[in-house]
Amino acid sequence: MADLVQAVGELFEHAIGTARTPALRGQLVAARDRLHGPLRLAIAGKVKAGKSTLLNAIVGEELAPTDAGECTKIVTWYQLGHTRQVVVHPLRGEPVQRPWQREDGALEVDLGALTAADVDHIEVSWPTTRLQELTILDTPGIASISADISARTHRVLSADDGRVPVADAVLYLMRHTHASDVRFLESFHDDELAHGTPMNSVGVLSRADEIGSCRLDALQVADRIAQRYEADPRLRRLCPIIIPVDGLLASASTTLREAEFAMLARVARAPSAEAERLLLTADRFARQPTDIALTELERQHLLERLGLFGVRLSVDLIRTGVASTGGQLVAELAERSGLNRLRLVVLRQFEQRSRVLKARSALAMLTVVLRNDGCTDSAALQAAAEQLSSGNHEFEEVRLLGVLRAGGVELRPPERMVELDRLLGGSGHDAASRLGLDQTATSDEVRSAALEALSRWQRLAEHPLTSRSGQVAAHTATRTLEGIVASS
Fold first, then answer.
1. Beta bridge partners of 169
2. Residue 373: what pLDDT?
3. Looking at residue 279, what DSSP letter applies?
4. Could you tell me the CA-to-CA distances from 230 to 202, 296, 443 in Å, in that order?
5. Which entry of 223, 279, 432, 464 is 20 to 30 Å from 36 by CA?
6. What are the DSSP calls for 83-114, one per residue?
7. 193 — phi, psi (to 5°)?
8. Looking at residue 179, what is its pLDDT?
């Protein structure tokens, strides 16, 4: 992987030195720096899908505004910084640092004389370890009433008109799959190097509690629906992993206060009949007179923070003794909300292969410049870039995984397709995940399993009845396994 980054970096150094204009040189320098920077992960979805709520849960702080204010119409970058500051990048003119304040936790940026239509994006720098490996892009909702607002998100994530996407990877939030969801994901995918792949898209079935009508088994119901979506061939090609997440519950698991735990505990200690009557509907919980020592304002606050499902679940966990302290409740909410699973998938799908994704993005940008003859030796550089992109094994794994999930590989029996998906990094990029072993497997167990699989895939590649697509896939799997054996 280090060799790949070094090779791409050397191409950029050559291109920077031969750029025809200062503007092109600046673009190339920015792309080179992006190659060595954090992975850019965009959170996208339709209006009110819960993007900002999920972002707050991932970052572990209430930073992104969740209302319909002016700044929610602007793409906002959340990145690691030594100090807390906000920089506004207008469509015309130089970036400018702007004052900000926090209202109920969320940032409120003073745009001054600018309006949302005048701003390209906002950069929020924040000192937190959660942003050390990721820069998170919060995007306006697609399918918005305003076509211009929807277009902002498409410009960040798609590669129309030869542009390179601003984001390296995307979490796409959906409440249910609609035609607009599929069209959007298709705009982020293609076979070209500049477009997305199944390696850099993960679907999130957001507001999962609502799918199960806020019953205590709501997330299990949502998980079954997510599995059904994953089995859909068209959607799997675009977004092969779909995770149900309750964003409010996830956000609360990272920001729950002791005073809020105390309020929930009062409901849990109340007589069961009274608590169940109060928790029948959200409106009743917020406004119905009750003997439980909670004011209407306190009950409305709990609903805003956790939702009806979150309140019901928290009360049940406290009452049954599963969570007797605030810390125990936070741990249970993080697990049950789907946040822990999402973080694990982001680690496996994005961070562990971030250098490959960033190298792909960087080469895509370089290819655009070279096709427009932006360097004095564009032809030679373009040939070198094409050779690197076509001959690199990590790129080949990403390409083949996309072909496999699109149904373009013929292998028998079907179990081999599942094994190939795993070997190519579809379930994680470490050796144990690729081989289907437990994470506690020893190096000897990894080596033994890799040698056994290597022999099996070599026989498949050489078998005369293996289809042409199967032979190509088997050769790629063989090379992957050879790498695992060499490093074990």
1. 41
2. 93
3. T
4. 11, 42, 33
5. 432
6. S-EEEEEESSS--EE--EEEETTEEEE--TT-
7. -60, -35
8. 58
SS3 226: helix
Classified as helix, coil or strand, 134 is strand
Q: CB atoms < 10 A from the CB of 299, how many?
A: 22
Q: Contact at 8 Å (CB) between 341 and 243?
A: yes
How sure is the predictor about 168, in pLDDT bands with cuts at 50, 70 and 90? confident
Q: Label residue 40 left, alpha or beta by phi (over 0 means left) and psi (-120 to 50 means alpha).
A: beta
- Residue extents of the structural domains in the chain: 36-248+340-348, 256-334, 409-487
Structure-model confidence comparison of residues 453 and 193, the more confident one? 453
Residue 159 confidence (pLDDT) above 60: no
**Residue 362 structure tokens:** 């960087």
Which amino acid does the sequence have at 51?
K
**Residue 190 per-residue DSSP state:** -
* Summary mean pLDDT of the chain: 84
Q: What is the pLDDT of residues 308-327, one digit of tens each?
A: 999 999 999 999 999 999 99
Q: Dihedral through CA 265, CA 269, CA 275, CA 279, nearest 10? A: 20
pLDDT tens for residues 207-254?
788 877 788 888 888 888 888 887 776 676 667 778 899 988 998 998
Q: Which fold has domain 36-248+340-348?
A: Rossmann fold (3.40.50)
Side-by-side strand order, sheet with 75-80? 96-97, 85-90, 119-126, 75-80, 134-138, 39-45, 169-174, 201-205, 242-244
- List, for residues 372-417, the tens digit of each pLDDT value: 999 999 999 999 998 888 778 888 887 788 778 767 888 888 889 8
Q: Which residue has the tokens 């960033």?
A: 358
pTM score above 0.85: no
| Gap between the Cα atoms of 48 and 175, Å rounded | 9
Per-residue DSSP letter, 320: T
Cβ within 8 Å of residue 388, ≥6 positions away: 7, 8, 11, 363
Give the HSE-up count for residue 426: Cα atoms under 13 Å, Cβ half-sphere.
24
